[in-house]
Design a protein that fits this description.
- The chain is of the alpha+beta class.
- It has a single domain, classed as 2,3-Dihydroxybiphenyl 1,2-Dioxygenase, domain 1 (Roll), CATH 3.10.180.
- The chain is about 20% helix and about 35% strand.
- Helix 2 crosses helix 3.
Length: about 280
């Protein structure tokens, strides 16, 4: 549907920190269905198609457990190509006794779980955009119960073979310390649009009229601190821009707002007002 391709701006890759690399690799391969693209003693790049890494994991030196009530990762979200893929992974989870949460968001059908370190994961499929309900620039989303009976009965059973090749990083949802400056940073700086407000504690932003490429919430508490660098959680995520000119405009806007931007290995790197690290790529 083009929401995760240029000219839209979208999340391309997420890197998280874990306490035990071997334990996490076992989980992400056997439970979630990733393949290892490349690895070192402390890091691994994971792939669904055997070519492109959409998730990487790292075991930092002197790593400490995930810190409660801090900013950072709420969940990253893997978008599957088809509804049959979602039904397939539900059966896989049931067969292996994996505990999951679920929700029907109107725009999507979603499963929720956490890795062994408490990093949040969403696995979902989108409903056709023609049935999304837009009103005055905002899309209707809710947290209704997922109809597992309909999902499993309407999709033919197949043997589970891991994540399908067309899986992409659908969105990322972050804990932030406040919403006013954060909204300004992501909209006026990074170029996103607010497409849904969930009370006064969360907002959802996107480009190209997607239901959201990024979620932002203060559910960890207004004023929540940034976690220590060596704690489990988010290392960074990447945003993919259309071209060099588009990225240059974003860097200029961020500089004009007083946001720090540095250059690192061909990428520009910035921090949102809550300390979440973002790589700006093309």
């Amino acid at each position: 549907m083009g929401f995760h391709s240029k000219p839209n701006t979208f999340v391309g890759h997420v890197k998280i920190k874990v306490q035990n690399l071997e334990r996490s690799l076992k989980y992400y391969q056997e439970v979630i269905g990733f393949q290892i693209l490349e690895r070192t003693n402390t890091t691994a790049n994971l792939t669904a198609d055997g070519k492109t890494s959409i998730l990487s994991i790292e075991q930092p030196e002197n790593v400490i457990p995930k810190q409660r009530n801090t900013t950072g990762l709420y969940h990253f979200a893997l978008l599957l190509p088809k509804r049959a893929d979602l039904a397939n992974i539900v059966r896989h989870f049931v067969d292996n006794g994996i505990q999951i949460g679920s929700s029907d968001h109107l725009v999507s059908e979603a499963l929720y779980l956490s890795d062994p370190d408490g990093n949040g994961i969403e696995i979902y499929i989108d409903r056709d955009p023609s049935v999304w309900n837009w009103n005055k620039g905002e899309v209707a989303m809710t947290v209704d119960p997922l109809d597992f009976g309909d999902l499993l009965s309407s999709e033919e059973e197949q043997s589970w073979k891991g994540l399908p090749a067309g899986t992409v990083m659908g969105h990322i949802h972050l804990h932030v310390s406040e919403l006013k400056q954060t909204e300004e940073f992501y909209t006026k700086g990074l170029g996103f649009e607010v497409v849904c407000r969930y009370g006064v504690q969360a907002l959802f932003i996107s480009t190209g009229k997607y239901h959201h490429h990024i979620g932002l919430n203060t559910w960890a508490g207004v004023g929540a601190p940034t976690p220590p660098e060596n704690s489990v959680g988010l290392n960074y995520f990447t945003l993919i821009y259309d071209n060099e000119e588009a990225r240059k405009r974003v860097v200029e806007k961020l500089n004009n707002m007083g946001a720090a931007v540095s250059e690192e290995n061909g990428s520009f790197v910035t921090l949102d007002p809550s300390g979440n690290r973002i790589y700006l790529q093309i």
